[in-house]
Automatic annotation (TrEMBL):
Single GO MF descriptor: peroxiredoxin activity
Organism whose genome encodes this protein: Zoogloea ramigera
Residue stretches making up the Carboxymuconolactone decarboxylase-like domain: 46-91
SUPFAM superfamilies: AhpD-like
Protein name: Carboxymuconolactone decarboxylase-like domain-containing protein
């Protein structure tokens, strides 16, 4: 059963089209992705989801590749097929030192793959938060601070994890089909 409808650009209201345009301008995309088109029937909902993503991913102090890796890891651990594919693609386009097989190995917990130090502590933290945010201890925060992250940046990391979880619930509940340029990792 198809659980959603897509609003194509040409059929969208002017308010929804404005959000679509802002998405493409901000991300450099040439097409509107399935997740955004699935919200297109409601301009306020489309705007709310896009503003949440834009504010979390494109603002703040943390670099975009790190944020994309966080979303990828959280999505993979949550079994969110759409989000893990989307953000795997984004990570690979932003970090040319990684390959698709590296991300697949990371998801499968292949012990032969070691993340670059740049990602490692944050990925461990994100996995712990995604599994059970109530189990965090001061040592988890101290480990990130030892890697040079400020308390404010740690709050930003948590905000990215929270946003990822929200999108995981949305895309997984609807079983969104992958965009043509996404490659399934789960």
């Amino acid at each position: 059963m198809q659980r959603y409808t897509l609003t194509e650009y040409a059929d969208a209201s002017s308010e929804t089209r404005a959000v679509f345009d802002d998405f493409m301008r901000t991300t450099g995309a040439t097409a509107v992705p399935v997740w955004l088109k699935s919200l297109g029937h409601s301009a306020p909902l489309t705007r709310a989801y896009w503003e949440r993503a834009k504010g979390t991913l494109f603002a703040g102090n943390l670099p975009l590749p790190l944020k994309e890796m966080i979303v990828f890891v959280v999505s993979a651990r949550n079994g969110a097929r759409y989000c893990s594919a989307c953000h795997a693609q984004n990570v690979l386009s932003l970090d040319k030192t990684l390959a698709f097989d590296d991300l697949r190995d990371l998801v499968s917990a292949d012990k032969g793959f070691k993340l670059p130090a740049y990602y490692s502590a944050v990925v461990d933290f994100a996995g712990k938060v995604a599994a059970d945010a109530n189990c965090l201890e001061d040592a988890d925060f101290e480990a990130l601070m030892d890697e040079g992250f400020s308390r404010e940046e740690i709050c930003e990391i948590i905000a990215v994890i929270d946003m990822a979880t929200m999108f995981n619930v949305y895309t997984s509940s609807l079983r969104l089909d992958l965009d043509p340029d996404y490659r399934a990792i789960l």
